[in-house]
Amino acid sequence: MLPVTPYAYPAAHKLPDGARNPRDGARGIRNLPGPILLAAGIVSIALTLTAAGYGELAWSVLCGLTGALCLRFGISLTVVEQRRIKAAKAQDTAFRGDI
Questions:
Q1: What span, in angstroms and rounded, lies between the C-alpha atoms of 69 and 20?
Q2: What is each CA distance from 59 to 42, 68, 72, 92, in whole angstroms?
Q3: Of the N and C termini of the chain, which has fewer Cβ atoms inside 10 Å?
Q4: What is the DSSP letter of 54?
């Protein structure tokens, strides 16, 4: 059995420069559903115009509804995320007393 001393565990437990701690992963997640829904909404609106140009009424209605829903929820998620970030920054500065 190896002795448990500070020398038994060399600097392997320290993270190299530029490496992120795995525990910080949840804090670093970006708002991806909002922009993805926005992009899907724009693509769906483009498909709506294409289907309408070919005279496909059912497809143009379907794509129009999905485009409107994707844009609405994408904008909503993006706004909610921005407000959450703004509130977190305000809370952080109030906690530190920088205001």
A1: 36
A2: 16, 14, 20, 49
A3: N
A4: T
Output the six-digit token pair for 99: 């205001």
Q: What are phi and psi of 14, to 5 degrees?
A: -85, 145
Spatial separation of the C-alpha atoms in residues 42 and 35, rounded to whole Å: 11
- Report which of 41, 49, 43, 46 is spatially closest to residue 76, judged by C-alpha positions: 41
For residue 30, what pLDDT band results from cuts at 50, 70 and 90?
A: low
Q: How deeply is 83 buried, as exposed, middle or buried, from its count of CB atoms within 10 A (0-12, 13-18, 19+)?
A: exposed
Its pTM surpasses 0.70:
no
For 8, counting Cβ atoms within 10 Å of its Cβ (0-12 exposed, 13-18 middle, 19+ buried), the class is exposed
In three-state secondary structure terms, 37 is helix
Q: Say which residues have a Cβ less than 8 Å from residue 67's Cβ, sequence separation at least 6.
A: 41, 42, 43, 44, 45, 47, 48
